[in-house]
Amino acid sequence: MVSTSDKKEYKVIGTRPIRHDGYDKVTGRAQYGADIKLPGLVLGAVLRSPHAHAIIKNIDTSEAEKIPGVLAVMTSDDLPRLDDVQRASSEESGSEKHLSENVLAYKKVMYKGHAVAALAAIDQNTAEEAIKKIKVDYEILEPVINVDQAMHKDAPIILEDFEADHLGKKVLNTNVALHERYDFGDVEKGFSNSDFVLEKEVNMQTVHQGYIEPHNATAIWDEENRVKIWTSTQGSFVVRDSVSKVLGLDVSRVRVTPMEIGGGFGGKIPIYLEPLAAILSKKSRRPVKLVMTRTDVFEATGPAPGGKVKVKLGVDSSGKMLAAKAVIKLEAGGFPEAFIEAASKCVFSCYDIPSTRIDGYDVIVNKPSSAPYRAPGSPQVAFAIETLVDEICSEKGWNPLEFRIKNVARKGTRTALGPLYTRIGLEECLKAAKKSDHWKSKLDDNLSPGKKRGRGIASGYWFNIG
Predict the structure, then answer these.
(1) Can you give the residue range of the structural domain that contains 263?
(2) Whole-prediction pTM value?
């Protein structure tokens, strides 16, 4: 929609301001994580598991340590063992124990690409050749790669010592880390009063954020037990807090300098290399830099969770939603945290529905531990409910935009989240779209064979952090 306002009334709207970081980036002056250079800097490499699920019976680093130019070698024995204490740091939650074990595998690997050992050497070639000399004895286990396999009664248990939470009850020997439920109104009565009920299940694969710049970290562990880190991150304070936990240091002893970031989209909130670089620096007494390869990024860092979402929606003859039900099963990866609470809160929150029931399942599978990707959990459930809404409109011959306006969440709506909404603007947004030239323009029917042109609309929700 084109604005007809006089842009002279505004200082910014209608202008083309220069990006604050534009000059530095186009001239090459900007420094990304891999660009950092420090006196005495040495380079590192990480050994990763070729298996998706296996017990680590032994790690022999002796041959690697003998290679000239190798300055330090580490395994998970060099990290303090942490308790299974739950963390609450916005988009990177989970327990302290699992945070550490995702950085470097302890006793067991949970996915192909899971870091097992690391070393530092005088140059990259020496590091990469030496890492091949580390010998790991694995006992290979059957992998579990999707929610159906993981939730099967005979499925191999990935985290044998984990205590799950199923509707407030503590459960052992399960791959379902969390089952939670949001109930609001009388769902069954709502469905029985509905004139039309439709149910649909969508199946989604994991999707990586696909940022251009790989993960990186450079660290110095100095003589006064202070750690300085340079890394490309979306949250320097998250890195500081997480690294201090993994290393067993007071948070005041860790300083993080965020470098320019070549894309993140949520995927550069978690830590991967920072504690390894720090320990290798402590052992070598030199600053250490680690940079992932593209293969490392895809195999070892968190994608958005895949899984299955089943939604059921009941409407009356006028097109008013009366009841909705969702069963959300998302893949957490090798450690709990598929952002199932966020997904549950988002699934029906664009609509004013009198009765809803939402069951969310956080499911452990042998894949990299999930990470945020543009509102973690929300795109998955939005895909499910918006697909169902479109199918209902198609079945009944209703206008999909009018249907959404009729059922839109607005000020005073109460959703599964609990509190009543204040003004949220979704209704105004939909009505503005309805009035726009884009929505009202005629689609070109004169297309070449094999081509089609359509127009769609969908709503999505995110409650934000804080």
Answers:
(1) 33-141+213-300
(2) 0.94
